[in-house]
C-alpha cells in the first residue's frame, strides 16, 4: 500500500488538470496513489488519465455531479493510506512538497498534519507578486518559523493554514462524521477537526504549493456560501476547543456572522442577514451586531439602500470594499 493518498476533485478543468497531474508525477516522493474524482464523468478526462499509463493514478468517475464538497469528502473517505492530502485540479505541487511533509510527520508523531506556504500564480502560471505580498502581510506568513505549532485554532481561523497545502495523518480526522453543510468552507472544517484536543501541526517554511487564481476559482465565485459554511465549521469547533483558542474562535465567529449579514443586506436579503446573526446575538451587546440586526428588521428595499450607501462611503474612504474574498480555507 502507498504511503500517501492524493485526493484530486475535478470538474471540467481540462485547461489546468494536466498541469496539476504533471506536478504530482514530478514529486521526489514517489510512494503515493492519486484518486482523480471526476464530478463531470468526462470522457476527455478519463482518456487523458489513461494515456499517462501510471498505475498510481486512479480515475473515479461520478455517475452524477455530487457537488464540490461531497466529491471531495468521498475521496478522503476512500483513503486507506497513512497520510492524505488534496490537490485541486487548478493548483500545482512543487517537486519536494510530499517529501518534506511526510518527513516532518514521520519525525514528529505529535503533529496531526504538516503544512507549507503557498505561491500565488495567475491563469498562465505567472507569479502574482502584489497578491503574494498582500497575503504575506495580512496573514503574517513571514513571522511563521519552521516547527511545531500547538494549539492550532488561532492559526486556522486567521487563514494561516490552507488545506491545499497540508498533508494530514488520515487517522486524525473522522472522515465519515464531517458535516457537509460546511459547504465550500469544508477545508477549514477538516483542519479544525484535525486540531481537536489541542493537537499540533508542523510548519514547513517553504512555498511548496502553487495556488492558481482565475475567474472561476471557487473562493472567488462562492463567497456567501463559504461564509455560511465557515459559520457552521466555527460553531462546530467551539465546544471542544482548547481554552487558549476559544477567544480566537469566538472572535472569528462574530466577524464571519457580521460579514455574511452585510453581504446578505447588500443583496437585498434581510431574512438571510438576520439568520446569519443568530449564532452571535446571544453573546451580549455588541453595537455593530445590534446595528446590523436593526437593518435586517427593515424592509428589504430600505435596508439594501442603506447598505449600498454605507458600502460606497467605505470604498471612498478606504479605496476598497469592506468585504474581501477570502484566501482558500
UniProtKB/TrEMBL annotation:
Gene3D superfamilies: Spore Coat Polysaccharide Biosynthesis Protein SpsA, Chain A. Residues 310-329 are annotated as: Disordered. Pfam families: Glycos_transf_2 (PF00535). The keyword Transferase applies. One of its GO terms (molecular function) is transferase activity. Keywords: Transferase. Residues 5-112 form the Glycosyltransferase 2-like domain. This is Glycosyltransferase involved in cell wall biosynthesis.
Amino acid at each position: 500500500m502507498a504511503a500517501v493518498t492524493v485526493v484530486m476533485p475535478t470538474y471540467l478543468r481540462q485547461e489546468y488538470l494536466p498541469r496539476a497531474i504533471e506536478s504530482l508525477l514530478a514529486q521526489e516522493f514517489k510512494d503515493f496513489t492519486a484518486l482523480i474524482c471526476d464530478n463531470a464523468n468526462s470522457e476527455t478526462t478519463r482518456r487523458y488519465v489513461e494515456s499517462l499509463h501510471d498505475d498510481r493514478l486512479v480515475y473515479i468517475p461520478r455517475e452524477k455531479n455530487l457537488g464540490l464538497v461531497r466529491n471531495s469528502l468521498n475521496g478522503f473517505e476512500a483513503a486507506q493510506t497513512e497520510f492524505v492530502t488534496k490537490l485541486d485540479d487548478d493548483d500545482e505541487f512543487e517537486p519536494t512538497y510530499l517529501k518534506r511533509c511526510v518527513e516532518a510527520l514521520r519525525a514528529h508523531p505529535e503533529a496531526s498534519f504538516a503544512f507549507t506556504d503557498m505561491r500565488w500564480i495567475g491563469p498562465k502560471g505567472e507569479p502574482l507578486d502584489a497578491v503574494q505580498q498582500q497575503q504575506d502581510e495580512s496573514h503574517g506568513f513571514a513571522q511563521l518559523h519552521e516547527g511545531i505549532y500547538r494549539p492550532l485554532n488561532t492559526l486556522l481561523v486567521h487563514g494561516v493554514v490552507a488545506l491545499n497545502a497540508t498533508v494530514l495523518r488520515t487517522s486524525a480526522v473522522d472522515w465519515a462524521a464531517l458535516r457537509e453543510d460546511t459547504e465550500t468552507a469544508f477545508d477549514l472544517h477538516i483542519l479544525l477537526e484535525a486540531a481537536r484536543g489541542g493537537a499540533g501541526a508542523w510548519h514547513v517554511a517553504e512555498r511548496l504549493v502553487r495556488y492558481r487564481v482565475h475567474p472561476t476559482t471557487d473562493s472567488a465565485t462562492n463567497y456567501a456560501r463559504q461564509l455560511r459554511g465557515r459559520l457552521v465549521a466555527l460553531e462546530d469547533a467551539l465546544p471542544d476547543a482548547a481554552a487558549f483558542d476559544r477567544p480566537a474562535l469566538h472572535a472569528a465567529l462574530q466577524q464571519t456572522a457580521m460579514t455574511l449579514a452585510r453581504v446578505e443586506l447588500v443583496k437585498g436579503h434581510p431574512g438571510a442577514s438576520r439568520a446569519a446573526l443568530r449564532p452571535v446575538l446571544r453573546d451580549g451587546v455588541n453595537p455593530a451586531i445590534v446595528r446590523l440586526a436593526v437593518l435586517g428588521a427593515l424592509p428589504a428595499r430600505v435596508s439594501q439602500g442603506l447598505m449600498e450607501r454605507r458600502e460606497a462611503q467605505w470604498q471612498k474612504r478606504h479605496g476598497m470594499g469592506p468585504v474581501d474574498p477570502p484566501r482558500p480555507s
